[in-house]
Amino acid sequence: YAAAGKVSADGPVPRTPGGEATGFLDGLPVLVYGGGVGSSRDGVFATAAVVPAGAVFELPAGVALDEAAALGVVGLTAWRVVEIAAIGPGDRVLVLGAGGGVGQSAVSYAASKGAQVWGQTARAEKADAIKEFGAEKVVVADAAGLADAVREFAPTAVIDPLGGEFTASALGSIAPRGRLVLFGTSSGVTAQIQLQRLYRNQIQLLTYAGLIATPEERRAGLGHTISEFAAGRLRIRVGMRLPLEAVNDAFAALANRRVVGKVVLELR
What we know:
Elements: E1 20-25, E2 28-33, E3 56-58, H1 65-68, H2 71-84, E4 92-95, H3 101-112, E5 116-121, H4 127-132, E6 137-140, H5 143-150, E7 157-160, H6 164-173, E8 179-182, H7 195-200, E9 204-207, H8 215-230, E10 238-243, H9 247-255, E11 262-266
Parallel strand pairs: 4-5, 4-7, 5-6, 7-8, 8-9, 10-11
Antiparallel strand pairs: 1-2, 2-3
Helix pairs in contact: 2-3, 2-8, 5-6
């Protein structure tokens, strides 16, 4: 999005893109994220970078740096939406878009809370990867078939990065007093929902937008995210590793949705 000018279009040009990375500072492993890195200043698609001190987060020794490189966006988002949904033991959680990077991490973190988790995907070939991260069942369905596919499950919580008619369908199948956390609209920015069912069943429609998080909120959230990742309760899948000079191949793989998990550039 940044390279295409869809976000941070008012940032300086030319500039080096890249909003998150792991590396070393004075020999210690660190995560770099935030502080305008890659948007209002040069980013981290480079072998070395000068970044604000506030964008540097210490990492516990022994964590996998390639996986930790995705904690800034995927990890923090997955941690935050599960926390917003207040998921715990006894919950039945439906994760939409569970084959994506955030979706898989959300599956793993929700399962670590003791919840029963189902994952939705439109691609059957991603089912095994979703189950590996903690989903009890994977539903292969589009928006039109989602409600019927999960009716017997009656989720108490839905994690929704898709929007559009997926949101409307999920709200139609959610249990009374359930909650839905919307944090993306990759399938559509509008939806028609049945308001009477929403209020008569006391369904909570919650949201998360990482772009408006304050530096203090981001730093506190990443502290929790790093701890959960180090403890193995929140997992990150790296689906492809490419050298920095193959960055265009990385963009193509993401655009074609060929990757299950994150694409990592190896900068050295």
